Amino acid sequence: MHFASDNTSGSPPQIMAALLRANDGYAMGYGNDAYMARVRDQMREVFDAPEAAVYLVATGTAANALACAIACPPWGAVFCHTHAHITEDECGAPEFFTNGAKLVLVPGTHGRMTPQGLDATINRLSPGNVHSIQRGMVSITNVTEAGTVYTPAEVAALAATAHQHSLPVHLDGARFANALIATGATPAEMTWKAGVDIVSFGGTKNGLMGVEAVVIFDPAKAWEFELRRKRAGHLPSKHRYLSAQMEAYLEGGLWLELAARANAKAALLAQGLAQVPDAILSHPVHANILFPHFPPGTHARAEAAGAVYYRMPAPDGREAARFVASWSTTDDDVQALLTALTP
Amino acid sequence: MHFASDNTSGSPPQIMAALLRANDGYAMGYGNDAYMARVRDQMREVFDAPEAAVYLVATGTAANALACAIACPPWGAVFCHTHAHITEDECGAPEFFTNGAKLVLVPGTHGRMTPQGLDATINRLSPGNVHSIQRGMVSITNVTEAGTVYTPAEVAALAATAHQHSLPVHLDGARFANALIATGATPAEMTWKAGVDIVSFGGTKNGLMGVEAVVIFDPAKAWEFELRRKRAGHLPSKHRYLSAQMEAYLEGGLWLELAARANAKAALLAQGLAQVPDAILSHPVHANILFPHFPPGTHARAEAAGAVYYRMPAPDGREAARFVASWSTTDDDVQALLTALTP
Amino acid sequence: MHFASDNTSGSPPQIMAALLRANDGYAMGYGNDAYMARVRDQMREVFDAPEAAVYLVATGTAANALACAIACPPWGAVFCHTHAHITEDECGAPEFFTNGAKLVLVPGTHGRMTPQGLDATINRLSPGNVHSIQRGMVSITNVTEAGTVYTPAEVAALAATAHQHSLPVHLDGARFANALIATGATPAEMTWKAGVDIVSFGGTKNGLMGVEAVVIFDPAKAWEFELRRKRAGHLPSKHRYLSAQMEAYLEGGLWLELAARANAKAALLAQGLAQVPDAILSHPVHANILFPHFPPGTHARAEAAGAVYYRMPAPDGREAARFVASWSTTDDDVQALLTALTP
Amino acid sequence: MHFASDNTSGSPPQIMAALLRANDGYAMGYGNDAYMARVRDQMREVFDAPEAAVYLVATGTAANALACAIACPPWGAVFCHTHAHITEDECGAPEFFTNGAKLVLVPGTHGRMTPQGLDATINRLSPGNVHSIQRGMVSITNVTEAGTVYTPAEVAALAATAHQHSLPVHLDGARFANALIATGATPAEMTWKAGVDIVSFGGTKNGLMGVEAVVIFDPAKAWEFELRRKRAGHLPSKHRYLSAQMEAYLEGGLWLELAARANAKAALLAQGLAQVPDAILSHPVHANILFPHFPPGTHARAEAAGAVYYRMPAPDGREAARFVASWSTTDDDVQALLTALTP
Hints:
homotetramer; alpha/beta; Aspartate Aminotransferase, domain 2; 2 domains; 7-stranded mixed sheet; 5-stranded antiparallel sheet; 40% helix; 16% strand
């Protein structure tokens, strides 16, 4: 009954098998391996973006912070949701990598910015006023930290707002596959066709050991990315171990299959929660994360039964759970959790 | 015949087995896994340093740059050899992580600083002169970039010089195991007993997939290290995959056994080179790296035979090879290379 | 009728005379001039703080950003009011000087934080959570950007909140003298007796050409300040020109006299505005700044009459003025402005 | 007998008069004053560069570090002489402002780089090697720290080398006027006609209170400069005091006249030193700085007579003096110094 995070899961057999195969023999380091050449091709096909620059790093924080650093100058504002991962959970990595850009927060219910809210926040900074930081970029998280999802149309509306102000758009897709499954969108529809310029393409929360891609649709920024990555200690010498995982992840749509499983288990859990007395969802359930809150005593009971998850304050003094389903969550896990939650 | 680098090798079966075991089931992220608890104990025992703080990161550049950042202020000088890895091969990572410290270079033959040379360089900066950067720290590489090794006594002499000026000492031990094998020293003798304060303890070049430890003997800097690591995107969520590798690496002295193999093959190669007509070593061979240079035609012949290695300018217009032996180099590899080199 | 800012005024004759005297002959540079030795003594006496470290810089932005840099680590939060000068008007200088600290905003009416609001904001960050930036420092602006003033008791209550969380307290006193005049407090009462650790002591807005002091009550941070100042290009070689101005400013209480004049003219203007039909003050007038808003047509009329000031949106679609009185504002200026504003 | 530095002198009457005039009345802040508009025109005329962007800052360190920051990325090398002011005397300001660029040192006698030496140093870094910092920019100091001067042809040769590698060229002209007087070159000949892209145009060492200009021949970098300047706390609110000084400095060629005086006194001193027994010049005297070394006893005698200057080690265990003449040095000063030096 492990619902703490999708990053507490292991890796599926296909990934392990790929790793074992990749371990055989010698390979040139630093991304000059044959696996990476294939990953580049795969990713360009996945995104229908034959010119895209594709890089791998080991953590989502690195992917996001490097993306910000190539999109936003030190004196720029990174517009993002009040509870975006980049502002709340990365210990200031975007500020470090950009050399001091300011994250300017856009409020919005259920973890989502609206075009109106984004526009109003952008307008609060006057371009050309040397005393103020300048408008820099927009970062959208999909799946959001509240577990909700933007549709491609919603991403497009936010990106259109950004572009009206000539700002580049980053998509933090730590759970990109889950967002695609939730919406039925293609990778292209969710990104460049909607106006996204750079994507953090998550793998770790969806079955990899620690591999994220950064996909940059305008390759003009590629070399700068490579230098910043190296300089940040994020160019692995034995790069093949990252490439081989990503290759297997993309192969035959495994990545989407894994996310579909996670989303399905979350849906099953949501369905079951509707029967748990007085369980109230803080946010709609779109993908693989749920935030229900419960009457007193529920958490103690669930934890006594062995459920593992994070707790946080909820309205009316109650406490919410954050349940995250992953590719490895089973029907039995879901059923056991529901049983433990039910008085 | 792959002698390009020890980071082009794969991982030995013990590491792969550990990884497979670690993949089973769920584990809390970010270093809160059971493997890491064991690694901490193992490492403290290896170093005979029960108070040491122990952390893992995925690259040597991250280990070194983070070590510099906790040891040296932004206005400090990092004294290191003219050809140290941190100054020539990390794209300015120490400068980035320290927010602009200056690497002040200490010349010395065969990749090694002398206490006299270090002292003279340190003395060139006057403490208390606000116009100048201040003395910050000393970083020693062992095995050096020239393939030579400092004995514990030599490290102690450099550290004593540093401490006379109240400077902390970092040891870049990307090939730490190879240096121990070369000298017969214990980890404690090579580090804190010799006056070293922080160690980058390499694993990647010696059989891991991408795992380095940072060992900090004074735990007062531990929390700062953790924050800097996270902020740099170097705290992996699925940390168990790093811990499990390091656990197996340390288990039963595997790490020393692997380095012993690499050094032995390098010695064999050095022995054979003595028979290759007009092959001249640029530097003494102490560990697992050799820099021989050859008459014209030799490189073409070796490469035609399938030898893979880096080439660089050598005296008298000749070209040197850099041959690096690893844990997976075989006697046959060495023999084949020698055959290819011999006219 | 120049009410745009107190930094559009010139310098009073005492300052010019001091400058002319200081110009005579040779003086050692970089703060080693005899004027600075006297300024140090004067400032310590003014603050009743015989141990305080005292430094001069040429701009308020430099004073504030350097103060933040010695009080807050790169991964720290600087808690300040939503509309603090450091977050809205310094183009990210605190982020630059601290290497990426995050300004975490505390809302509050009329430009003022409350202890409750500050405490709630501080509590939102959990110390010891490596994924989050850490609590760093509190910065209080007095006179605030809304023209209001904190009493010493109010500063003390904020500082007590900060200290409960072990956070140092900075006071941005760009208009420090005006705040003292407004409250009748002594410098000590407004600062260290209330729990303030570092003060940006303004001179420029109150009659100097471009001189601000930084007063650090704990001299342990003094050398770091000196190095950061030099490294930021803020150690003037011909430092005597700054020292001589500051000496004359402090001499005989000139600084308080100048601020008293400015505050008195602002009070006169506030009094007159009460007679201007439908003029409404956005904030109470405590010191030398007023934010009245007016019916349509008023601004056009005032500007046609030669009034110079900044305009900004106000409630109900009206536009507010920011009128700032300075040491050089005259009764005639005030009267002329009131006449221009009256239909 | 004050020869410690040209920054220990005061300002000539023309500057003081301009300051007094500028003090009268109100002026908009932050460079929006009428004086600055005239300075911009004057400077463009002085440099015969009608498109140049012109900015003022209060220190040479700020001018240089901001110039580096707009010319060199964080991962770039700033090629400069081993003893350049930017590497030895600015406490790492270029590293701070550029976010960690590396100053790569070019040796050369008498403080001067040669095109061959520069080229060899540049060639040591391979562009396109992601492990290495990249080639960034070239910074030339004229007058050099050794008191020597580059002719326009010499600057052009260095700049040609830089441009062959597509690197921008900065000229640190803290003593720009002295270099022009020494060579008879026009400002244009010494800068853009020779291939210089950005100039730190010194005023402080030549009679201003603390004013330096930065002249950027390609105005495309102007807005970035303005933002970096503000963010570094180097945009003065009462900017008119800087503008007014610079206006008077440029007016009628005063700046060249002041430098001519300084150079003439240095020449007189050099002439006299030829008669001082066993006085040996470490470097040729081209402008207003001399580095003679003397037999034992000389320094004690000179200082006892009231001479003020810096001392530093010289060959053969002797000690050198650094004598700097300024606009305010008199024939009597020179004669008194020579008398004191003569046994």
